[in-house]
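Help needed: design a sequence for this.
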């Protein structure tokens, strides 16, 4: 990759890592559903002019039904699940569970599309899931915290969100192959906002969220959604999907950094060990790491 591509990859990881910090700040005042509604609506409105400028509006109109499904599976539900989890879990821990998305994507592809993994990829699935179980086992606590959400429920919702990411990725491959990526990004944000409009209105907080909460919501929308999508699709175009996907390995590092610097959430040795195991499983499951045994020359 060129230096510019590497810089964009690091910036993308920093933005997506910050999303967990913003959820931690915004969810308690907004509530999970209103926070996600604001995030999706503003992100969609920011992306809409870019969609028009790219001349990809026709693709959105033609495939709006499938794109709406992606908006539900890849944005609305997962974002709400992570926002609920943010009421009980730290930013770093949520980001570690988020890193399992490629593992679930490979597992869904195996079960749904019949794409049997190679030996090493299957090993990666086992290692990654074992890392999730081990980390969840050490962090699970069924006692509800200050905001009425227990760590155990938060972990379950993080895993459910990443599983939905896996379903959405394979649905997109099956139903939206070749569709302009900006149309998918813009349409999924706007359709997710439409789907959450009524629940957000019903659950809108009685007390107006403060400046910090609004800043977090706008940060999620503009930086972590709109700008991040533009960077992500630029990277796919310039360096290919496998290299762009390597951002997965950088996100937990930035989430831990932001959580430590701004919220005082220092990562524990158990969390770091679980993160290492999960990222190893992810690398194997996605084919980014393929161990090769040294060849033995016969005499």
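Sure. Designed sequence:
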């Amino acid at each position: 990759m060129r230096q510019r591509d590497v810089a964009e990859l690091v910036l993308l990881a920093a933005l997506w890592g910050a999303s967990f910090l913003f959820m931690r700040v915004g969810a308690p005042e907004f509530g999970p559903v209103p926070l996600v509604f604001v995030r999706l609506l503003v992100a969609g409105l920011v992306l809409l002019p870019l969609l028009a400028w790219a001349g990809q509006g026709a693709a959105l109109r033609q495939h709006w039904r499938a794109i709406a499904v992606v908006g539900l599976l890849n944005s609305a539900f997962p974002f709400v699940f992570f926002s609920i989890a943010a009421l009980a879990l730290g930013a770093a821990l949520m980001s570690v569970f988020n890193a399992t998305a490629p593992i679930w994507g490979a597992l869904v592809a195996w079960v749904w599309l019949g794409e049997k993994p190679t030996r090493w990829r299957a090993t990666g699935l086992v290692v990654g899931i074992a890392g999730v179980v081990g980390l969840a086992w050490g962090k699970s606590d069924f006692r509800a915290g200050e905001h009425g959400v227990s760590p155990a429920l938060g972990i379950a919702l993080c895993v459910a969100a990443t599983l939905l990411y896996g379903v959405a990725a394979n649905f997109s491959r099956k139903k939206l192959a070749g569709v302009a990526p900006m149309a998918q990004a813009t349409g999924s944000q706007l359709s997710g906002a439409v789907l959450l409009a009524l629940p957000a209105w019903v659950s809108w907080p009685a007390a107006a969220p403060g400046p910090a909460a609004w800043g977090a919501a706008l940060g999620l929308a503009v930086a972590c959604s709109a700008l991040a999508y533009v960077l992500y699709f630029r990277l796919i175009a310039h360096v290919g999907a496998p290299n762009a996907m390597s951002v997965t390995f950088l996100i937990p590092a930035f989430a831990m950094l932001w959580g430590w610097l701004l919220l005082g959430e220092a990562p524990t040795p158990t969390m770091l060990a679980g993160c290492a195991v999960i990222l190893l499983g992810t690398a194997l499951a996605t084919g980014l790491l393929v161990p090769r045994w040294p060849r033995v020359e016969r005499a």
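The chain has one domain: 6-285.
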